[in-house]
Specification:
Length: 317
């Protein structure tokens, strides 16, 4: 089977070093095994997504030497469109399937109501839905069929059982969705599609066999695995890469101007930046100061990637 990987950036600002790391790892992973690489634009959030950011992402990837075989703004390939903002029909079809199988229900809770039910010890910011609107009856059989025309959020029933998966970097993980997040939203009250639903429908329809991304999304793989099963798609492999953090230990964000692709392009050549990323990822030893992504293909090996949730960048980068 030919590996199919993807990079799925949200065009809400200029990419930073961490985004470039995820892109490079995902590209190398499939290229080192003769696979295909997809660029999908995750512009689900209409307020924050901008076309010029998507164009800039394409330009930054090309500058670094990461070409895609499918996707992008030109919708290259057979599984388009590759922008989530125009893929609503596919998400709707998936939602209809979940509704007809009695696996989702309408939820009228406001954010404040949900926050009021959170346990005080939940300090990691994770929100666990308490099931306030969960109807009586068993999901899949006795529960009512949700009416999708209502302008309310739609939630997926989740089972109180362990979801087990193996991440290429972090190894075996077990997540109980009932205690990790509770029944989660698949369509918001304003009609916007939830990331969890969109990402599964897209990866499923696009034939993605491996998902490589930052390890902030490691545990959400369990929500996605559950959805893959319900929607009948094969489950891809997962590989989560450490998050890059600034010298204060904060993970890089689009607000870290000095680590934005624009700043990095003014300080380094593509080969210098690639070598710096590859050294951080343990792919090449210290002392190699410049190389292209293609030169890394023969030496790329997942076993060298540090098994760590974060990598702190030296002050002078
Ligand atoms: N669009 C997400 C982001 O930019 C990535 C989602 C994914 O790779 O699954 O953080």
């Amino acid at each position: 089977m030919i590996p199919v990987g993807r990079f799925a950036p949200s065009p809400t600002g200029r990419m930073h070093l961490g985004n470039l790391m995820s892109a490079l790892m995902s590209w190398l992973s499939v290229r080192s095994r003769g696979g295909r690489w997809i660029l999908r634009i995750e512009d689900l959030d209409p307020q924050r997504s901008r076309l010029e950011y998507a164009r800039q992402i394409e330009d930054d990837l090309r500058w670094l030497g990461l070409e895609w075989d499918e996707g992008g703004l030109e919708d290259l390939g057979a599984h388009g469109p590759y922008r989530q903002s125009v893929r609503g029909e596919s998400y709707h079809a998936a939602l209809e399937r979940l509704a007809s199988e009695r696996l989702i229900y309408p939820c009228r809770c406001r954010r404040a109501d949900i926050m009021a039910t959170q346990a005080p010890h939940q300090s990691d910011g994770r929100i666990v839905y308490a099931g306030t609107c969960r109807p009586d009856g068993m999901p899949g059989s006795g529960a009512p069929v949700a009416d999708l025309t209502q302008a309310v959020a739609m939630r997926l029933f989740v089972p109180d059982e362990e979801i087990l998966f193996t991440d290429r970097v972090f190894g075996e993980r077990t997540v109980n969705l009932a205690s990790h997040c509770g029944d989660f939203v698949v369509r918001r009250a304003d009609g916007a599609w939830a990331y969890q639903l969109a990402v599964v429908v897209d990866d499923g329809m696009m034939g993605v066999t491996e998902v490589v991304r930052g390890c902030d999304l490691l545990l959400s793989s369990a929500q996605q695995i559950y959805l893959y099963r319900l929607l009948g798609y094969p489950i891809p492999e997962f590989a989560h890469v450490p998050l890059l953090c600034n010298s204060d230990g904060q993970r890089l964000s689009k607000r870290d101007a000095s680590m934005s692709a624009g700043e990095l392009r003014s300080r380094y050549t593509p080969e210098q930046l690639t070598a710096r990323l590859a050294r951080l990822a343990g792919i090449i030893p210290d002392g190699i100061d410049a190389c292209s992504p293609s030169e890394l293909i023969p030496v790329f090996d997942w076993t060298n990637i540090p098994v760590s949730e974060s990598i702190i960048l030296a002050e002078k980068w």
